[in-house]
Amino acid sequence: MLVTSSTYFLFLAGVFFLYWPLARWRLASLSILLFANYFFYARWDLFYLGLIPAAGFTDYWIARAMGATRRAGLRRMLVTASILMNVGLLASFKYMPFLLENWAAMSGGVAPAWRWTFPLGLSFYCFQALTYTIDVYRHDAKPAASLLTYLTGVSLFPTILSGPITRVSTLVSQLERKDKTLSPENGAKALFWIGLGLSKKFLIADYLAENLVNRVFDFPNLYSGAETLVAIYGYALQLYYDFSGYTDIVLGSALLLGLQLPPNFNAPYAALNLADFWRRWHISLSNWLRDYLFFSLPGQRGKVLPYLNLVITMVVGGFWHGPSWTFVLWGALHGVGLAVVRLWQQKRGNQPAAGAWRFAGIFLTFQFVALCWVFFRASSIENAWSVLARVASGAWATPNITGGLWFILAIAVAAHYIPRHWFDFTIRVYSRTPFYVQAACLAALVVALQFVATTGATPFIYNNF
């Protein structure tokens, strides 16, 4: 069930109209949400109806056991069990074919068939579940008092496919509130977020994908160096508008149910350096990698290990995206880049860039990020080298870049760099307008989507992770 489909919005409306009349009754309202969560999973595969509840039930009782003891050794054993279970789920149901194929290649054998692959949302579910057990282990959160509340929070259906990765303890506290309400202002904001997400997806991301990016990356030898370079920049924009568009729809969906999810993007291509980029891009993932992996690695006060730990953290982050060496290489490049930035900042005393140096930092950071996106998008490392080779070919004609493409690219760039206070002002104005004005804006958006997106929505890129 794609979150851009009419089926999803009918489903969301059904959950909305069932949930709010029962919101004052905790058991009934949480049961509605939990049923919606598991129904959403079941739409993809019935196997999830066994896997996700079993994993959630296990983590719940592990956290309860940690909360009931102060014995450091026992608590360490319990949190280790949770980590091994969640990592084991990823290894068994997402990465096993990749692991078997590479083992067979190294040993000279034949990889056995493995048909138990259920990758949908597991990367996001397992990382989200680990926020709970690790937080309880670190005494950053208390165990949930209710199994129903925990199971509802850890499997919340808007976040199932592609996040944002939300601390389960935060969701549990919101679900346990007794004064649940949806103000007209928050309702309007929720619809604004959903409309914005649909616009990003249909009007920019899908247009760039179908009319430029997919064609060039699939057949790079058919395009000039200039067209390939434009496609690389186009993919950087496509990926941002695709993923941030999904996040906007999810934020709006959750807000309609009275739940606040963390922001996931903040103008990432305006970053001053690579460290700043990861404070702006996929914020929930970068925070997870920092809080639960990087800070857990040894040698944080050493001279060399902190730099090595950055590389290890980003390699893990790359591999988390999928079972492919292209993702591993992408993560390694970012890890090395972050280590270089950290070394540079320590040499310069962490002084902020100003003037021309500020714009130079933004420009160079974007070039590096765009270069790395080539490996992220390519079907193989060989495909990535083919794309980069075309850029270096010296052919700079652009007969395949139409006027419409230039126009969409210009809109994408301009919209990305709109000042944040302009955006916040727009939301405030929209949320305070009469309902018929809001309805007219949404109707105009629907007409625009029907006019531009004639072929239907493509799956969100991060649905694959």
Number of helices: 18
Q: Sheet with the most strands?
A: none
State which percent range the strand residues make up: under 5%
State the shape. Answer: globular
Total number of domains:
2
Q: Give the helices and strands as they follow along the chain.
A: HHHHHHHHHHHHHHHHHH
Helix fraction bin:
55-70%
Give me the count of strands: 0
Low-confidence stretches: none
Q: Could you tell me the mean pLDDT?
A: 89
The helix/strand class is mainly alpha
Distance between the termini: 16 Å
Gyration radius, in Å: 23 Å
What can you see in these coordinates?
It is a single chain. The chain is mainly alpha-helical. It folds into 2 domains: 27-180, no CATH class; 185-272 and 352-452, no CATH class. Helix content is 69%, strand content 0%.
Main attributes?
single chain; 465 residues; mainly alpha; 2 domains; 18 helices; 0% strand
Outline the fold blueprint.
Layout: H1 6-19, H2 26-42, H3 48-67, H4 72-107, H5 122-137, H6 147-154, H7 168-175, H8 184-218, H9 225-256, H10 274-278, H11 283-293, H12 305-321, H13 325-348, H14 356-377, H15 381-391, H16 403-416, H17 420-432, H18 435-452
Helix pairs in contact: 2-6, 3-4, 3-5, 3-6, 4-5, 6-7, 8-9, 8-16, 8-17, 8-18, 9-14, 9-15, 12-13, 13-14
Please outline what is shown here:
With 465 residues, the chain is mainly α. It is 69% helix and 0% strand. The longest helix has 36 residues, at 72-107.
